[in-house]
Amino acid sequence: MINDHEENAAVFKALCDPKRLMILEMLRSGEKCACRILEKMDIGQSSLSYHMKILVGSGMVAERPEGKWVHYSISENGAQEAVELLKRITEIE
After folding, report:
1. Overall pTM surpassing 0.85 (yes/no)
2. How many Å apart are CA 70 and CA 25, to the nearest integer?
3. pLDDT, tens only, 17-53
4. Residue ranges per structural domain of the chain
5. Domain 4-90 coded CATH 1.10.10.10
6. Which letter, b or e, does each residue of 40-61 get, where b requires 16 or more Cβ atoms within 10 Å of its Cβ?
7. Distance CA 37, CA 24 (A)
8. What is the tens place of the pLDDT at every residue in 57-76?
């Protein structure tokens, strides 16, 4: 069973890598096929899969399979939860 601290750490793990930040920035303009993300980044498909697994696992990115490719988008709920998490853990009591 995953505890809250592990779930919270997953959000920050997703944000602590420059390539994942680049991917999130790309997704700001809307859903992207993995093939389009690969075109814009200097990484291989297995590396992209690794980064996307972390982003999807954080809840900030949603995935939608279509044919042989997966399409990714920012999850509005997941992004909002990440913002609320940062507020919660940095709030002075």
Report:
1. yes
2. 18
3. 999 999 999 999 999 999 999 999 989 999 999 999 9
4. 4-90
5. yes
6. eeebeeeebeebbebbbebbbb
7. 10
8. 999 999 999 999 999 999 99
